[in-house]
């Protein structure tokens, strides 16, 4: 059976941003949003979180990047 892929919505990105600012770890955030950890790391890069600095993630920036 084929895998179902999930695109992140703007609401998902806002949730990621809030959890990053709250200091949640990547695995916790990925579980909460319902995506694989690797998907979350790519999303963090898309949203401007450089060198693992999740506090810098921006949902707005990530949304514009797609």
TrEMBL record:
<dbReference type="Pfam" id="PF13936">
    <property type="entry name" value="HTH_38"/>
</dbReference>
<feature type="domain" description="Transposase IS30-like HTH">
    <location>
        <begin position="4"/>
        <end position="47"/>
    </location>
</feature>
<feature type="region of interest" description="Disordered">
    <location>
        <begin position="47"/>
        <end position="66"/>
    </location>
</feature>
<protein>
    <recommendedName>
        <fullName>Transposase IS30-like HTH domain-containing protein</fullName>
    </recommendedName>
</protein>
<dbReference type="InterPro" id="IPR009057">
    <property type="entry name" value="Homeodomain-like_sf"/>
</dbReference>
<dbReference type="InterPro" id="IPR025246">
    <property type="entry name" value="IS30-like_HTH"/>
</dbReference>
């Amino acid at each position: 059976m084929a895998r179902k892929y999930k695109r992140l919505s703007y609401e998902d990105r806002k949730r990621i941003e809030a959890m990053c600012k709250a200091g949640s770890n990547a695995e916790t955030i990925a579980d909460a949003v319902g995506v694989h950890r690797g998907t979350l790391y790519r999303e963090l890069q898309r949203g401007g979180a450089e060198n693992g600095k999740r506090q810098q993630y921006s949902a707005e920036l990530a949304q514009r990047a797609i």
